[in-house]
Amino acid sequence: MSTPTDPAVVYPGVAAFGSLAAALRAEVGGRLGVAAVRSSDSAPLLHATVASRLPYREPLRISAWQYERRWSIRGTEPSVGATLIDGTTDDLAEVAKAAWAWHDGEPLRGIRQAAPFVHLTGRFEVPDHDPARLAESLTRRLDHRFPESLSRGRPTKRTNEGPRSRAPPPAKGIRPRPDGPAWLARYRRGGPRLFLISDRLGTGVRGT
């Protein structure tokens, strides 16, 4: 197993400031206060966090690579710890721009405009931690990551101009009965799933 390179050799500019936090503050002309940026006690040249003024943002995590001059960032939200932004670059000035924008409360797209290396994961922020909005945010992230696979799993939309889409065959082991329960087929990755709508056809009572 190879021995990690001395961080001071890989990052002499950061080492001149004594810590990654101090180097980041210098890059943005001191606009990031001492309390906002903190370096790791165990590896001050390699790791730092940048707090945000927004209570629904976790501190931005910044980590330097050990064998190559490069930095990675990750910004998350506090409710479920989901990643909102991430990215990798070899330019510390760009890292500092992203850190300042995250700290100052810029919108996610604004952070990307300030530092183009930033990658948006597709989630959006939910300041009030509303469960329904959080679920919607997760769904949008999945659509962002797997647009083709999800679109293949959705039923074909019926129109007046085209042929009607064929209904999927009944699930194995389930036989439809005229006086039996009504079912709704939902399509997700991995195939259709059946959900009970009502105990009898036409009752209009939603079940589980």
Can you tell me about this structure?
The protein is an alpha+beta fold and about 210 residues long. It has two domains: about 5-145; about 165-208, no CATH class. It has helices spanning about 5-10, 10-15, 20-25, 90-105, 110-115, 130-145, 145-155; strands at about 35-40, 45-50, 60-65, 70-75, 85-90, 120, 180-190, 190-200. It has a six-stranded antiparallel β-sheet, covered by helices on one side. Strands 7-8 form a two-stranded antiparallel sheet. The protein is elongated and about 50 Å long. Residues about 145-165 and about 170-208 have low confidence and may be disordered.
Distance from N terminus to C terminus (CA atoms, Å) equals: 55 Å
Question: What spatial form do the alpha-carbon principal axes imply?
Answer: elongated
Give the mean pLDDT: 76
Query: Main sheet, how many strands, which sense, barrel?
Result: 6 strands, antiparallel
Tell how many strands the DSSP assignment holds: 8
- Ranges where pLDDT stays below 50 over 5 or more residues in a row are 146-165, 170-208
The count of helical stretches stands at 7
What class would the helix/strand composition place it in?
alpha+beta
**Structural domain count:** 2
**Radius of gyration based on Cα positions:** 25 Å
Helical amount: 25-40%
Strand arrangement in the largest pleated sheet: 1-2-3-4-5-6
The string of secondary-structure elements, in order, is HHHEEEEEHHEHHEE
Residue share in β-strands: 15-25%
